[in-house]
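Input record (one chain):
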Amino acid sequence: MTIVLVGIHVSACLFLIFVVLLQSAQAADLAGAFGGGGSQTALGMRGATTLLQKATTTAAVIFMMTSLALGMTGRSESSLIEGLESPSPAAQVETTVPDANAPAVTPDQEADGS
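The corresponding structure, as predicted from the sequence alone:
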């Protein structure tokens, strides 16, 4: 089931990319680059919906639905941490506490090697 969903999801993704790249921008003329609306307005009347716009909407809905379905099927009750083995005592790193009576070493002394 998951393999079929992944196949549909990838197909819808590639189709969506293809269809979006085929469409022209709403304000693709030079006036649109500088804020002039020309004959196209942002909130005004729009032309009829083209086949590319319908295909984009359909592909976007399919992409979102398969995303949600794949997100729900990927859940499991087990944890990755539960499957890990505890480290062996030999692999554990020992920490040492510096001796309180030892003289402090300055960075100059470390560079000299004394």
